[in-house]
Each structure stands twice: as C-alpha cells, then as structure tokens.
Design brief:
- The complex is a heterodimer of chains A (321) and B (247).
- Chain A has 321 residues and is an alpha/beta fold.
- Helices cover 26% and strands 27% of the residues of chain A.
- Chain A has helices spanning 16-32, 72-86, 99-110, 216-225, 233-237, 268-274, 291-294, 303-317; strands at 2-6, 9-10, 13-14, 36-41, 58-62, 88-94, 113-118, 129-134, 139-145, 150-154, 169-172, 183-189, 201-205, 228-231, 258-262, 279-284, 297-300.
- Chain A has a seven-stranded parallel β-sheet, with helices on both faces. In chain A, strands 14-13-15-16-17 form a five-stranded parallel β-sheet.
- In chain A, helix 2 (72-86) packs across helix 3 (99-110).
- The N and C termini of chain A lie far apart (55 Å).
- The radius of gyration of chain B is 21 Å and the shape is globular.
- The termini of chain B are far apart.
- Helix content of chain B is 29%, strand content 31%.
- Chain B has helices spanning 37-53, 70-79, 94-108, 127-135, 188-196, 233-243, and strands spanning 2-6, 9-11, 19-20, 25-26, 33-35, 58-64, 83-87, 112-116, 139-149, 152-159, 162-169, 172-176, 199-202, 211-217, 226-227.
- The relative contact order of chain B is 0.18.
- In chain B, a hairpin with a 4-residue loop joins strand 3 (19-20) and strand 4 (25-26).
- Classes of the chains: A alpha/beta (321), B alpha/beta (247).
Chain lengths: 321, 247
C-alpha cells in the first residue's frame, strides 16, 4: 500500500509538472498515513535520489532504452507492473501532455476510477472525493472515486511544489517492456522561449495590437518578465502569430500565476482558456471590454503608450535598467 | 479503410453555467446544445478530409446518449460521414462511455478512431486513452496534424514547447485538437442528405462505473478589477510585485 507518482521526464530531465505531482502525491500519502513512491521510465541524467526532497521515499526506475520515447501503450503496461508490485492504492500523474496519454489508459487497464484535472487534495473523511475543473474553468465538480485503486491527474500549476529534506532510495525495476509501435521521427521545439504550457507568466496580445509588426511590444514585456507569449484566436487565424500561441476555448488552456492581456476584448471563448490564471491583468483602450470583468488589475489606455512604460518599470524592478 | 469519429453533445460555449438539485445537476433549462467543438472542428473535419481524398474510406460516427442527442448527431452527419451509431445510454462516467465506444469500435473493426482532445463540459481528455487501452491499440493524445501513408499514420502531437512527429502503424486511436483541420459549416446539400443517412441505435453493454459526481461548485466571484490610471503604469508593476506578489 502506497501512493505511486509518475515522474515524467523528457530528454533525461524531470519535467516541472512532475515536481508538482510529487509534492501532491507526498501530501496524499501523508493524508493516508502511507508513503509516496515514484516511477521513472527511461534513461535519465538527473539525480533521482535528490527527488527525496519532494517527499518521495523510493523511486522505481525502469531504465530501459525502449522507454526513451513516449508510447502511451508501452508506458501504461510498465506502470501497471509497478502498481501491482508496490500495491499502490493511489496513482498520481500530472495532467500534462504525457499524463493525458497514460492516466486514462491505466484507469481502463486497472479498472481504477480516474479524476483528470484535479485542482486540490482529496477529501478522505467520507470516501475519496477529488475536486476538478469542469465547464472549461467555469465550475468545479467533486468526484467520488469508488474503485479500490484511484488515479488522480493533477492540473499543472494548481498545486505548489514543496521542497523539503530527504533522499529517495533508487531501485532498478525490472519490467517487461513491449517493443513500442510508436516511432518518434522528429521533435520540433521552439528553443530559447518559455513553453506556454509551463510558463508562470504569460503576456498575450489581441487584435488591438493592429498587426504582427507591433508584436515587439508584447515580446519586450515578456522578455523583461521571463514570460511566454500568447495570442487570441483572431490573431492566430489571420496568421499574425503561430497557432501554437493561441490560448482559449479551442486553443491551449493555461493556468499561469500571471496573465497579461493586451488589446484582447475577452470573448467568453478566450476566457475559457485563461480563467484558471491566478492573477489577470487587462490592458485595453475600451473601458467596456468584457475582459475587465474577469480581471484583477486593469489599465484603460492605449497599449502603444502604456505597455512600453510597464516594460520599463519591470526592468527597473528587476535591476535590468 | 474504416474510420470511427466520436461525437459528444455539450452545452454551447456561451451557455450560462448553473446547477440545480442542491448543486448536483447541471441546469439544462434554456441551454443550447452543440457538437463538442474539438470533436466537430478537428476530429470530424479531418476524417472528412481524409475521405474526400480517398472516397473508398468508410466514415462512421458514434455517440453515447439518449434520443435527445439525435439532433446533434444529424448535425454532424450534415458535415459528412456515411452513418452514425448512437449507443442508447446516458453518460455515467468516462469509463462507462469509453467502454461503450470501445465495444462499437471492436464490432466495427475500425482502422482509426478519432476523438476530440476533451469535451468542453467535463474537460476529461480521457475517452481516447481509455478506448485505446480497451482495444489494446496505440494512442496518440493531443494531435495537431494527421497524415496517412498507406497503413501508417504520421502524426504530430503537442509536447511542452513544441511538437513531436511520430509514425504509427494502424489501427490507432487519436485525440484531435487545433491544427488538425479548419472549422466547416454544413451546406444545404449536406443538411438535406443527413436526414436520410442511417442512424443506428444500439443498446449499451453492461459496465461498472468507477466514479460519480458528488456535486458542483461555482468559483468564488472575483473581487472586481482594480483599475490603475493609464498615466501611471509603474503603479501596476508595484501592485503586481507588492500586493499580488506574482512578479
């Protein structure tokens, strides 16, 4: 009996979302009076013992080169073997790109109830109930998991990373690993920029910026803040910005600590993708823009005048100017 | 080649979200229902494009729901597809729905199953993965591009900060999102044709549910926007640093 956490890695490095999953899993283990263990698939270069700082007591490492690339089918079968061997009662994933591939498969394989997109720790007073986002961030649902094994995938940026003391015991896990059917032929990463899905701060631009030639405004502020850049749907649709920057109902849904919207009116479809942000700042010259209703801070003004001044003030704050 | 596209009925994006029965049920009164946008714009339209390129492709749609989902499935058929299958059951949980779809998929022997990346009501992103596991097939989540080369699928999927390109032999289950295709509007010919396309109703298979919804909550209301004068943007930076503590 234990809580097992899937520690997601890419290129040998533990992902940021995995630190959140570990912190969450350790808290669940403490709640249930059991210990938190982790599973790592594939070769890694990070020091796994050091992950003990995040509350994980033991790490099962399946160091098989066939697991170097993501194949949800193969990964699921391996994790199921670790679940069986450890007798894990709760399995924790991050609800990130890989978690969305594996967690539902594992749920179907183990006939385990899944809460995808959990936003807080389970209530274990009466049953096992986990809160998740529903209606694209417009409400929450409390989900009771009624199966012996429970699977939770935690929404990125909804549970804080908790770093303490400790070293994890790292044990090689000998699993049967199927030959992957998925062959990865290329990885196209935008280098040198903060990935939007992992960013703590996001600066986003809309039609109010009038044209792609004005995006320097957004980029300069993002650079000063160490933020990722994003855009609204109309901007992506007219190709001012690449589609992977589109946040909203049909684009990427994000939950950064700070979302700064410049020249975006705040249509309900856009809000659906960003309303899980902790703090929302809206800069728009139209005081009637619906986005102000969803904002924490706002400036009614011309972005072309206001934004460069904000960038300057940020640089000053950070000692960059 | 046979393709199955999973269609879900969801409240319109702009629907008011409220609950009844002591916050245990979604308030459906006055709600407009639509095809889940991810199912429609990306999964279904991409499948239609594949069929346009290769008319020998057989394209079926499946939904799990009561008779009230029929207008939605007819609307999907107006966009394209040869026939639809409705599993006559209300959704109980994602495992229940996925098991029904997997049963239909197994019976039909499909080479490809497309789902949307998530529904805009439950936001589970679970059905595709569960169906794939129940069929023991590979699964590519969050696909942004899909091409066929004989019996191999070439798929780009979203990863943190970019895309991964992979090749998978069919059969495969794929969850689809933006990038896969562009939104279409059904034309009159499609709407007329959809009326006579076969819509098979099948009874559900017996499946245990694993989770249940205890209740819903609305997020706490925002305190209201704090406006900073446009001539003093530095004040905004101070507030974000000292008050909100986010920079």
């Amino acid at each position: 009996m234990s809580v097992l956490i899937f520690i997601d890695q890419a290129d040998g490095h533990v992902k940021k979302a995995a630190y959140e999953a570990m912190s969450y899993g350790a808290a669940v283990a403490a709640q249930l009076g059991t210990s938190a263990e982790g599973v790592v698939l594939g070769p890694v270069s990070d020091d796994l013992a050091a992950l003990g700082k995040y509350g994980v007591k033991k790490i099962h490492h399946v160091n098989n080169p066939a697991l170097d690339h993501f194949d949800a089918q193969v990964f699921t079968k391996v994790i199921a073997q670790v679940v069986e061997s450890t007798g894990a009662q709760v399995v924790v994933f991050s609800n990130n790109v890989d978690g969305k591939g594996i967690a539902p498969r594992l749920a179907a394989r183990l006939k385990a109830g899944l809460v995808p997109g959990a936003v807080s720790l389970p209530e274990t007073g009466n049953g096992f109930v986990v809160k998740k986002n529903v209606f694209s961030g417009k409400a929450f649902a409390n989900i009771a998991v009624n199966s012996p094994i429970k699977i939770i995938s935690v929404n990125p940026n909804s549970y804080p990373v908790k770093e303490g003391e400790g070293t994890a015991e790292v044990a090689a896990f000998n699993a049967t690993v199927d030959a992957p059917k998925v062959k990865v032929t290329a990885t196209n990463k935008v280098t040198g920029e903060v990935p939007l899905s992992e960013a703590e701060i996001v600066v986003s631009g809309g039609r109010g910026l009038k044209g792609p030639e004005n995006w320097g405004l957004v980029e300069d502020l993002a650079k000063a803040l160490g933020a990722a850049t994003a855009c609204s749907r109309p901007v992506a649709d007219v190709h001012w910005r690449p589609h992977h920057e589109h946040v909203g109902q049909t684009g990427l849904a994000i939950a950064p600590n700070l979302y700064i919207a410049i020249g975006i009116s705040g249509a309900i479809q856009h809000l659906a993708g960003v309303n899980r942000s902790k703090v929302i700042v809206v800069i728009n010259k139209d005081p009637e823009a619906p986005f102000f209703k969803a904002a924490d801070y706002g400036i009614v003004g011309d972005a072309f005048e206001v934004v460069p001044k904000i960038t300057e003030a940020v640089k000053k704050l950070k000692g960059m100017a | 080649m046979k393709i199955l596209v999973c269609i879900s009925k969801t409240p319109d994006t702009t629907a008011k979200i409220a609950f009844t029965d002591n916050n245990t049920k979604f308030a459906e009164a006055g709600v407009q229902w639509i095809i889940n946008p991810y199912d429609e714009w990306y999964a279904l339209v991409r499948a239609i494009e594949l069929k346009e390129k290769d008319p020998s492709i057989v394209l079926h749609l499946v939904t799990v729901g009561g008779a009230d989902t029929e207008p939605i499935i007819r609307k999907a058929l107006a966009l394209g597809g040869d026939e639809a299958i409705r599993v006559n059951a209300d959704s109980r949980d994602s495992f229940y729905v996925a098991s029904q779809i997997a049963h239909v998929a197994k019976e039909g022997g499909y080479d490809l199953v497309f789902t949307g990346r998530e529904t805009i009501d439950y936001n589970g992103s679970s059905i595709g993965g569960m169906v794939a596991e129940l069929l023991d097939q590979p699964y590519i989540p969050l696909a942004v591009k899909f091409e066929l080369n004989g019996t191999t699928a070439i798929i780009n999927r979203e990863i943190e900060g970019g895309e991964e390109v992979c090749e998978v032999p069919l059969p495969v289950v794929v969850s689809c999102q933006k990038g896969m295709a562009e939104q279409r509007i059904p034309n009159m010919k499609g709407i007329m044709g959809a009326r006579t396309k076969p819509l098979k109703v099948v009874e559900p298979v017996a499946v245990d549910t694993l989770t249940s919804i205890v209740g819903f909550e609305l997020p706490p209301a925002k305190a209201g926007v704090k406006l900073v004068p446009a001539d003093n943007p530095a004040e905004l930076v101070r507030l974000l640093h000292e008050e909100a503590k986010v920079i």
